[in-house]
Write a structure and sequence with these properties.
Elements (H helix, E strand, L loop, with lengths): L6 H32 L3 H25 L23
Length: 89
């Protein structure tokens, strides 16, 4: 028995993973370039980190305020009794 996976949820998962992987990797690379070329030392690096973190938190708060509450299976909605069966060819 195979459960049918919703295409929308799969797309969302792939999108979030791509953003997290490429965003994290490119952010670390660009951040290291900024620190290298500005020849920053300890206190200045901490200040840049603090400012960038505050700027990055803004979209998080906008997302939390504006987006509707989602129905999460197992959290806000009960699990379905059974999956739809499909034949494997």
């Amino acid at each position: 028995m195979v459960c049918i996976i919703d295409d929308e949820s799969t797309t969302v998962i792939i999108t979030v993973l791509l953003i997290a992987i490429f965003g994290g990797g490119s952010g670390a690379f660009i951040g290291s370039l900024i620190i290298y070329f500005t020849k920053s030392k300890g206190r200045h690096v901490a200040l840049i980190n603090w400012v960038v973190t505050l700027v990055a938190l803004f979209p998080v708060f906008v997302f939390i305020i504006n987006c509707p509450t989602l129905k999460l299976v197992g959290v806000t909605v009960e699990y379905p009794d059974r999956c739809e069966a499909t034949a494997l060819l």
